[in-house]
Each structure stands twice: as structure tokens, then as C-alpha cells.
């Protein structure tokens, strides 16, 4: 029997890992599950966050499984099946990966007899929809177009009207997918999962108005040609304020480049550790259990790696 593949796609920082962690904590799967974490940056962080759950994780970093790492992906699937033989594999592709290409990779000659694509979920950050569609439409639209279920994230602080406008725009890109706009906290995730597994089509809300989106043409198709990454592994001890100061600069100055995603786990004083998460306009810092090595990963365009090195080393 072919192994089920659930793909949880979505642009940088949309909430893919959060959703996967939630699915695991709500024990929504009965079978043995393996998670493939694919990070564009060379320093992987999500795998470590999910590993706490005790599930088997396979990390494929430093590129996208949909282009530069397709062969690594195929080999990983074969190894997972041979060594673990799970009932299901959940894939979290990199935020700059194209869902169409990942589906293609899953249906390759080498894998077609082994696996079967099951859920195709794309998480869409409702607050950054316009930013991403305007600047990185080639990647973002592909993720929306090829999903069967689209989950809106960060809906808690967003007005109903804005959610409706974004929903309407999504429907223009993908008229057949189910769009879930209710905050996840208010929904039992198994409702979403059963919807995603059934792939039934939802009614379209006809009342929503159009949103004005200015699209910039992106000619290049390979994420490596468009996005860059910078990473750091360090035993250095930081302070929470310093990390906050650094990350805040990404919003107000372009001297480090156009930073679309920054995340990390670093040590602060008294053997305490923090995890930080940045997407444009939003910084979240939380205390986490002690780790082994500090890690920082940044993705963006036109990154000034010298300045990034300096700011993280000059503390
Ligand atoms: N307020 C709010 N924050 C969210 C929501 N979803 C995710 N976040 C936060 O957004 C940040 C990024 O979430 P992740 O789950 O790591 O996003 P991701 O898509 O896995 O990120 P990458 O894999 O790095 O592209 C974290 O700080 C989350 O807590 C949401 O629905 N509401």
C-alpha cells in the first residue's frame, strides 16, 4: 500500500510549523508518522522544535526539495520507508518552495509506486497577503493555486472585512480550494483535517469586494535566484533586549537587506534560552527549554551578509 503524504505548504513564517506542532499535540494521527522538514537556509531550526514531540524527523536543509534538493528528497523518502515504514509522511516544504514542483517530485518515476499525495494544505498569513503576492507572486500564487485546503493564519487581529478581501483574492487564484478563515484556536483541528482529507469544495462568499493588488513581475523561477539565506550557529550568550534590538532594525532599516524571515534559538543569561520569530511587522520572543547550540536563520532578498555577521558577532 502506498504511504500517505500530507504537504503543509505556505510562505515564509506563515505558521506551517505551528500547525504541524498543533496537529501532533492534538494526537490527530493514529499511525506512525515521520516529518520531513525542508528549510531553505543552511541552519535548520524547525526540526529541533518538532523533535521535542518525540516524532521521527528528517531534515533536508540549504535549498528547496522542489528544485535543488529533489534527489535528496527522493533518497530520504526511500530511506524513511525502508527503515521506519510509517503510515504517513508529513512534509513541511521551505516557505519559498513551489507546491506544484513538490507535488511533481512526489509523483516522480522513482516515488510514484511508494507514496500517494493526500492532504495539500497551504497556510496563508492574512496580514502579509498583499506584501507577498505583490513581490513574490510567482511562488506565493503557486502555493495557493495548488492547495486543496487553504488555512488563513493571524486572523485574530485582522478585521472581518480584510479577511473577506483576502479570501476573495485567494478565490481568484484558486476557486476550488476550501478556505478556512476561523482562527485555529476556535476550531478543533480534526475538523480541518477531515475537510482536507475529503477535499470537498466549500461555498464561495459572493459578498466580498475586490482588493487592489499591484503585481511585480518575477522573471526568475528558481528560488535560489530570488531569495538568499544567512545562518549562524553559536555558543554565544545574548540578552533578550539585544536580540529584540537587532530584529527590530530589520523592520526600520534596509541596511541588512530586505529581510522576510528571521528566526532563532539562542542562550541568554542564567542558562535560559529564547526563541525569536520575525516576519515583516511582527516580532515574537518566547522563553524555551535549554538547548545545545544557538542558531539563527535569516531569509530575504539582497541580504548584506557582512553586516549581518557583524551585528550578530559584535555583541
Ligand atoms: N498571532 C499569530 N501568530 C502566529 C500564527 N501562526 C503562526 N504564528 C507565529 O508566527 C511565527 C512563525 O510561525 P511558524 O509556525 O514558525 O511559521 P513557518 O511557516 O513554519 O515558518 P518558516 O518555516 O520559517 O517559513 C511564530 O512566532 C508563530 O507563533 C497565528 O495564526 N497567529
Automatic annotation (TrEMBL):
Keywords: Chaperone, Hydrolase, Nucleotide-binding. It catalyses: GTP + H2O = GDP + phosphate + H(+). The keyword S-adenosyl-L-methionine does not apply. Pfam families: cobW (PF02492), CobW_C (PF07683). Residues 227-314 form the CobW C-terminal domain. It comes from the Bacteria. Belongs to the SIMIBI class G3E GTPase family. ZNG1 subfamily. This is GTP-binding protein.
Amino acid at each position: 500500500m502506498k504511504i500517505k503524504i500530507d504537504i503543509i505548504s505556505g510562505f515564509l513564517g506563515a505558521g506551517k510549523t505551528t500547525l504541524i506542532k498543533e496537529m501532533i499535540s492534538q494526537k490527530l494521527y493514529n499511525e506512525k508518522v515521520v516529518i520531513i522538514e525542508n528549510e531553505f537556509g543552511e541552519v535548520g531550526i524547525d526540526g529541533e522544535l518538532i523533535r521535542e514531540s518525540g516524532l521521527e524527523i528528517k531534515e533536508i536543509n540549504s535549498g528547496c526539495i522542489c528544485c535543488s534538493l529533489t534527489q535528496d528528497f527522493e533518497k530520504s523518502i526511500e530511506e524513511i520507508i525502508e527503515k521506519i515504514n510509517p503510515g504517513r509522511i508529513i512534509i513541511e516544504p521551505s516557505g519559498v518552495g513551489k507546491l506544484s514542483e513538490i507535488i511533481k517530485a512526489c509523483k516522480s518515476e522513482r516515488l510514484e509506486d511508494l507514496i500517494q499525495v493526500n492532504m495539500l494544505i497551504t497556510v496563508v498569513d492574512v496580514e502579509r497577503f498583499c506584501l507577498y503576492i505583490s513581490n513574490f507572486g510567482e511562488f506565493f500564487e503557486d502555493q495557493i493555486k495548488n492547495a486543496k485546503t487553504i488555512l488563513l493564519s493571524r486572523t485574530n487581529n485582522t478585521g472581518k472585512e480584510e479577511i473577506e478581501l483576502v479570501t476573495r483574492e485567494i478565490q481568484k487564484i484558486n476557486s476550488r480550494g476550501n478556505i478556512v478563515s476561523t482562527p485555529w484556536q476556535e476550531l478543533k483541528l480534526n475538523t480541518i483535517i477531515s475537510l482536507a482529507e475529503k477535499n470537498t469544495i466549500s461555498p464561495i462568499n459572493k459578498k466580498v469586494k475586490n482588493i487592489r493588488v499591484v503585481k511585480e513581475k518575477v522573471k526568475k523561477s528558481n528560488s535560489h535566484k530570488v531569495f538568499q539565506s544567512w545562518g549562524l550557529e553559536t555558543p554565544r550568550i545574548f540578552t533578550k533586549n539585544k536580540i529584540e534590538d537587532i530584529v527590530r532594525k530589520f523592520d526600520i532599516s534596509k541596511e541588512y537587506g530586505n529581510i522576510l524571515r528571521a528566526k532563532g534559538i539562542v542562550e541568554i543569561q542564567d542558562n535560559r534560552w529564547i526563541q525569536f520569530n520575525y516576519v515583516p511587522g511582527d516580532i515574537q520572543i518566547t522563553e524555551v527549554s535549554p538547548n545545545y547550540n544557538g542558531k539563527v536563520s535569516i531569509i530575504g532578498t539582497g541580504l548584506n551578509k557582512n553586516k549581518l555577521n557583524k551585528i550578530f558577532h559584535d555583541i
